Q: What sequence folds into this?
C-alpha cells in the first residue's frame, strides 16, 4: 500500500529523499488540507493501513506525536526525565525506563 501511495504522491509532484515508508506519511501530512498540524496528522493516518508506529516532534518542541496503528497491540509508555522535564521518552515497554 505504501508503494501505491508513494506513486500517487510522486505523480502529484512529491519528491522523496528516501525509500522509507515513514516519508510517505510525512508527505501525506504536508499535503493535507487540514488547518492545524494535529488535524493534518490525523488526516494522513486515515489514509494508510497496516502496522506502523512513529514518534514525531515539532521543530520548536511544542508538540510530540506518538503514533501507532490500531492493529498494534502494545500500549505506548511515556516518561519525562526529572528534575527539569526537558527530556521525553516514548516506548512500548516500561522496562525501557529502567
A:
Amino acid at each position: 500500500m505504501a508503494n501505491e501511495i508513494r506513486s500517487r504522491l510522486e505523480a502529484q509532484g512529491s519528491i522523496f529523499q528516501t525509500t522509507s515508508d515513514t516519508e510517505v506519511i510525512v508527505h501525506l501530512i504536508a499535503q493535507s488540507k487540514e488547518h492545524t498540524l494535529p488535524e493534518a496528522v490525523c488526516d494522513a493516518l486515515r489514509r494508510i493501513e497496516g502496522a506502523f508506529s512513529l514518534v514525531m516532534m515539532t521543530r520548536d518542541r511544542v508538540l510530540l506525536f506518538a503514533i501507532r496503528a490500531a492493529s498494534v497491540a502494545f500500549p505506548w509508555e511515556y516518561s519525562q526525565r526529572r528534575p527539569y522535564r526537558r527530556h521525553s521518552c516514548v516506548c512500548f515497554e516500561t522496562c525501557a525506563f529502567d
Observations:
- The longest helix spans residues 21-31.
- The CA atoms of residues 32 and 40 lie 5 Å apart.
- The two ends are 37 Å apart (CA to CA).
